[in-house]
Prior knowledge:
about 450 residues, alpha+beta, 2 domains
Amino acid sequence: MEDKCGVIGVKLNSGHAAFPTYYGLYALQHRGQESAGIVSFDGFKQHTKKGLGLIGEVFKEDDLKQLTGPSAIGHVRYPTYGSINKKTVHPFNVNTRQGFLALGHNGNITNAESLRKDLEKVGHVFTTDTDTEVLVHELARNLIKADLVQAIKQTIERTQGAYSTTLIYNGKVVGFRDPRGIRPLCIGELDDGYMVASESVALDVVGGKFLRDVKPGELVILEETGLESRRITEKTPAHCFFEYIYFARPDSNIEGRSVYKVRRKLGELLYDNHGVATDLVSPVPDSGRAFAAGYAEAGNIEYIESMMKNRYVGRTFIMPSQETRERAVRLKLNPIEPNIKGKKIMIIDDSIVRGTTSKQLIDSLRDNGAEEVHVRIGAPPITSPCNLGVNMASEEELMASKKSVSEIKNAIGADSLEYLSLEEISEALDIPKNNLCTGCVTGNYPIK
């Protein structure tokens, strides 16, 4: 699975809002590594810097100095809709008769194609195939006859999908969230202003104070005089449970919950409900660490690393073929033989997607003398692709879409394999199942 996108909006009383935006984007780099962009507004004109690559590759000190003004929004992207090129880098800018508008979002607009056709009929011209450009044009159209709040309300009413969004409109910085709150968005206070961001870690890095999460269907306007918020619409929440399991940084807080503590709790449930006697418990680095720590504590089992990660190897799922993915796994994770030989090992991870990494790891552990290798997963089996802002394998590539747990166990070569259930996820989060988006594990999505 590939991370999605990260958004930030900053409004200061004075100074360069681009600097805290830049630092905040660094904290959100895990949410998107293909491109990055910042747009600022100085009261008279817009300033834009966007490019392909990581934050450190796109921005230099001189770039930030030229992004003047107390208002700024920023974005890191991994595309889940549309192509990858310089034209598709967020934020998107539109100059309207009413003023300057720039917007970036995290999620997927599921009715983007029908909206695009409607907009083209009334003269809107598109330069990319992204759903974000459709969103910004829809908002620009509504701004012709309505004020900002009403225009956003009309946009939300016509737009289906998942979207946490930041925008600048004539110097005002706004954050708004889709009616079901599928993607995260929070508000924080800075020494000289306010910030909205995908995760609370963006606030931490600039010394901000976390205030609260943006409510589903709410918009927040950041102004020099303070915050203005409006609840535009309200529907049954459908928070993405995989934010807690995989996507968010473990040091983030989402919906009032520490992501790290949630993962440890899930690890405890793995032991309490699915434990088996082993000599040690070992995480798949880095994704399984918090789960494994909770499992080890619950079972009073030794927690020890059985493999070491090479941090300078690219992610296995961006490799173009099965052969190169398998080679990348061997480059990326190297076994620590003294911790393995003659041991019964419990391996903990957050998910199994294609199964390539799991099989390679288990084969490697056995080659280095492991007596038994058991596997526990801190989520239910992934059976369906996400259509709401996460780039993952197709249904044909998802191992659990066509294999039972027993068949997956045999395919990856484990002595035993068990997953957490949705009921256990709901218990750990203390969120009812019907308030979670579970499309990737049930095939039932909260949005058409």
